[in-house]
Design a protein that fits this description.
The complex is a heterodimer of chains A (293) and B (277).
Chain A: H1 6-34, E1 37-38, E2 47-48, H2 52-59, H3 61-92, H4 99-105, H5 108-111, H6 114-124, H7 131-138, H8 155-179, H9 184-192, H10 197-225, H11 229-234, H12 246-256, H13 260-292
Antiparallel strand pairs in A: 1-2
Helix pairs in contact in A: 1-13, 2-13, 3-8, 3-10, 8-10, 9-10, 10-13, 12-13
Chain B: H1 7-35, H2 57-62, H3 65-98, H4 102-113, H5 119-132, H6 139-162, H7 167-175, H8 180-191, H9 193-208, H10 212-217, H11 226-237, H12 241-261, H13 263-276
Helix pairs in contact in B: 1-12, 3-6, 3-9, 6-9, 6-13, 7-8, 9-13, 11-12
Classes of the chains: A mainly alpha (293), B mainly alpha (277).
Chain lengths: 293, 277
């Protein structure tokens, strides 16, 4: 398409722009408006209540727990996914036999449908039939299985492990591609100068991958913060709210109890918290850049 | 950058690689193993990794009429979404990479930014719009929602491919008298086929497993998609894990097969955007 085809340019972008405007930007504003009204199963007609919904949310006992859970969940999953992703990318970047096959297999958990992965892990954690307890018992750790997902002290950690398994291969593939872009000459020069593997990693590999790492952290943070499937299928937010995060709470309030106003209020708060988390990354990146220069 | 490790560290690295392989594959292996286990064979401690008398009986039971309905629904919704999303994204990304109009660039950036919007935070207004338009519990509501949420990523991925095609080619064709449509269909389309394949596979993987919208927008069994149907199975059949695992295998096979077939192009396309920016 050349410069003279202005009208055509507009026709080509209009469907996408319209859809995203109507189905994403408008609902974004709609959520804020919705949160100013109150509805419930008994009173389905929306009634304007102003900021009362927020008063109710901030005053409720669940709220602090959900913010805490969401942050723990997001930070733990993001850190572990990126950590494992980076380490396994380093491993798959070595010249080893079976490498081609490994690079194909590694994405399997990520391709597996989310609900299937969640059901599979629910089964792995099953107190009587699960593989994890079976291993632990045969290895001599007690003679009775633990109910990982039904115990509020282990449920969150169990969910985090399942989510890390499902998502880290994506990080591996991204980091592997970035590793293959690191300049060969620079590495060779450092090797000749006597720099060991750790120093090469720290002074050449990491700085050249910095942008990819930041983008990937932001991407995985957004995906994890909004990750509904895993927790909903594993625990539905239980036991006693121990694994409730924003998406599961919003679904439960909105579609379980028809309290749309409150659900929308949680939605608005979740957007603010996610935006804060992402701003933190940008600040960290900015200060890192200053320190480096 | 690639490194050839020394012989001693090589053995250690091979061991690590084997460990990684086990971590990735063990849950899959177990899923298949349990799906082949006859209902009469008990779960034992220590767990038997492969059933004594493997059978396909769980698959026969799992492939019941409801399951076939869910499967059909998932196919209809996913394929429609892939076709519509890729088409719209291709048009939009093409305009985006070839225009010098500021307004278009700004609009497209706004579209791409929308991929960061949390689905759970905007689902209630979308649900109400669907309700007002009488679209709840229809294929249309799901396809519309899926096309919208996959469009930003699809445009972002295709933009990466299109921006690497030289404009000189199009200019030459235009001088030879080819119109914009001819250029688009005869030059651009064939050249960015790898990008189209990568984007299509990505959209398929995302839609095939979408859960939140499907759970919220469908209310009757005949409209459920596979992920929601699977979630229902947990409640209905309690701990009949054999059947549950057989259904899991049946759901996963189509996406895994497509992924392996088109893997090379897919991985290249997925990482092109993230790595080259």
């Amino acid at each position: 398409m050349l410069k003279r085809d202005r009208w055509l340019t507009w026709i080509f972008v209009t469907p996408a722009v319209l859809l995203v405007a109507v189905m994403m930007y408008y609902p974004m504003i709609g959520t804020v408006i919705e949160s100013l009204y109150s509805t419930s199963f008994i009173n389905p007609t929306p009634k304007f209540v102003g900021l009362a919904v927020y008063q109710k949310i901030f005053g409720s006992a669940d709220f602090g727990q959900i913010v805490w859970n969401s942050c723990v969940w997001t930070l733990a999953v993001v850190a572990l996914q990126n950590g494992f992703g980076f380490l396994s990318a380093l491993l798959l970047n070595q010249k080893l036999p079976g490498q081609g096959l490994m690079r194909s297999l590694i994405l399997l958990p990520w391709v597996l449908p989310g609900v299937v992965a969640a059901i599979l892990w629910r089964f792995m954690y099953d107190p009587q039939l699960g593989l994890i307890n079976s291993f632990l018992i045969s290895a001599g750790f007690g003679d009775q299985g633990l109910a990982w997902l039904a115990d509020s002290s282990t449920a969150m950690a169990a969910a985090v492990i399942a989510a890390v398994w499902k998502g880290f291969p994506f990080c591996t593939i991204v980091y592997l591609a970035a590793l293959q872009n690191v300049e060969e000459e620079q590495m060779e020069a450092a090797r000749i100068d006597g720099a060991g593997a750790v120093r090469r990693l720290w002074h050449i590999v990491l700085p050249s991958m910095k942008e990819v790492i930041v983008i990937n952290f932001i991407l995985t943070t957004i995906l994890t913060f909004n990750y509904f499937d895993m927790i909903w299928v594993l625990t539905r937010g239980g036991p006693q709210n121990a694994t409730h995060i924003f998406p599961t709470k919003i679904y439960e309030l909105g579609f379980g109890q028809f309290r749309f106003g409150e659900a929308a209020g949680y939605g608005v708060v979740s957007i603010v918290i996610l935006a804060l988390l992402i701003t933190l990354y940008f600040l960290a990146q900015g200060s890192g850049r200053k320190a480096a220069s | 950058m690639s490194v050839a490790p020394s012989k001693t560290s090589r053995a250690g690295l091979m061991l690590l690689q084997l460990g990684l392989c086990v971590v990735i594959l063990l849950p899959f292996f177990w899923m298949v193993s349990v799906s082949l286990k006859p209902a009469s064979e008990p779960f034992a401690i220590p767990a038997r990794l492969w059933p004594q008398n493997p059978t396909l009986e769980n698959y026969v039971t799992a492939f019941r009429p409801e399951f076939r309905t869910y499967f059909f629904n998932s196919v209809v919704v996913s394929l429609s979404t892939v076709v519509i999303t890729v088409t719209l994204a291709l048009f939009a990304a093409y305009s985006f990479t070839r225009t010098q109009m500021r307004a278009i660039s700004v609009l497209m950036l706004l579209v791409i930014v929308a991929q960061m919007f949390p689905a759970s935070a905007i689902i209630i207004p979308i649900y109400k719009m669907m309700k007002a338009a009488n679209l709840l519990n229809t294929y249309a509501s799901l396809i519309l929602a899926y096309v919208t949420v996959t469009l930003p990523v699809a445009i972002w991925m295709l933009r990466g491919f299109l921006s690497r095609l030289p404009v000189a080619l199009e200019e030459a064709a235009a001088i030879d008298g080819a119109g914009p449509f001819k250029i688009f269909f005869l030059i651009i389309l064939p050249l960015c086929k790898p990008g189209i394949v990568a984007t299509a596979v990505f959209v398929l993987i995302v839609t095939w497993q979408e859960f939140l919208f499907a759970l919220s927008f469908t209310s009757t069994k005949d409209m459920r998609t596979l992920p929601v149907g699977m979630n229902d199975f947990i409640g209905q059949y309690g701990i009949r894990y054999g059947e549950l695992m057989a259904s899991s295998v049946l759901i996963s096979v189509p996406v895994i097969a497509i992924f392996f077939l088109l893997q090379r192009q897919f991985v290249a396309g997925l990482t092109a955007g993230a790595v080259k920016g």
